[in-house]
Amino acid sequence: MADTFITRTMAPLEVLSEEGLSVIEENAETVLEQSGMVFRGFPDALGRFAAAGADVDIEGERVRFPRGMARSIIQANAPREFVQEARNPARSVTIGGMHTVLAPAYGSPFVRDLEGGRRVGTIEDFRNFVKLAYASPHLHHSGGTICEPGDLPVNKRHYDMVYAHMRYSDKPFMGSVTHPRRAQDTVEMARILFGADYLDDHVVLMSLINANSPLLWDSVMLGAAKTYAEAGQAVIMTPFLLAGAMSPVTAAGTATLTLAEAMAGMAYVQLVRPGAPVVFGSFASSMSMQSGAPTFGTPEPALVLYTCAALARRLGVPFRSGGALTGSKIDDAQAAYESANTLHPTILAGVNFVLHAAGWLEGGLTMGYEKFMIDADQCGMAAAFAKGLEMSQNGQALEAILEATPGEHFLGSAHTLQNFRSAFYVSDIADNNTFERWELEGSKDAAARANERWKRVLADYEPPSIDDAVDAELLAWIERKKASFPDSDI
Hints:
The chain has a domain at 6-15 and 75-386: TIM Barrel, CATH 3.20.20. It is built from 17 helices and 21 strands.
């Protein structure tokens, strides 16, 4: 088994001075103090903040925070890092500190492969991607809504999605957030899988809670966050900012708004249950001023990512961002360079939880089979890079250098023979053969090789073992829940 998560050896790259970070922190405090945050349709948040000393406008559903209030609530309660337990203990992951956990892309209504093209996702696609993530040695997490199964009722599809993560993988996974009741269903399913009391003092679920930027948290997201927090489970409080639309066009302004919104959300979680794990989330993209569409792989969002990662470290909570993002519709050069331009800053900035590490196409609208395999391969390269230089005696290779005869190569040296199998990362997608051999084998591009790869992985897939009684209890519980109310498209 490969490493269950990345432990980085290099200090995170900083793009802003201490003075600059302090300015952004002060500006965020001013935003929370003067503009405040709207907690729409959620009296529970208004009541908790009022009791904690905030200025609450009940009619306008707006909370204005005294300077430093949100920060102090978070720093007094939220853990700096935590372990998300997997049903296979060997696959549990540590979120925070010098650790990086890579998870698949999330939320796409469409899927794409070379033969079928772009189409609405199905539960079969969802299960396939869970299996591919499980089989990948480079992805540490099963993720959440890898794609939307459009062939299932909206109000019941979460049962099949959560069960797929539980049955077809034994890596950690994410819960449903589309309604508080669905979040509660996820918690109840986890109690069946892990044991009724296990969740009382273990984190087994993580959930993605997005703000309605700018400066608004809605009742659906807050209700789901409250459900998970009450159960002691982790929530990722993530402002979703398209610079120029939901935030200012500047990187500093976007980072300021991200920090303000995230702190307001994380503070609420700590008021619900002090000590519940929270992750400072950031998803910021630039936009095309010609079409209004989000753009990826550009310099400005990378600057926001680096800045927010540093702000999270100063706040003392884990950080989520990044991935292999692209606006391209297919696996082409644009997809490659935009994905590289978002994954590299993710690693260098020290992101702790990476959502959208594999499969993302078309600005997140599409989950690509071939893109998934190409991205997973790149995640393997990123992990190898993050380990840094090996400085053991073997890594220094001084003896090999001294034994070499000037002007002669190292191909036959004892050191090379001892290390050649593991010295360099070996891609399972890239072709590094001669032109003649590449042509003889069909002149396949990366997408064609990835197509063959995902089909082979699924053909060879073997599910992880699960206790038969637990599996039967899960299936019976799901069946009873589905039968207790009618199907709906909302």
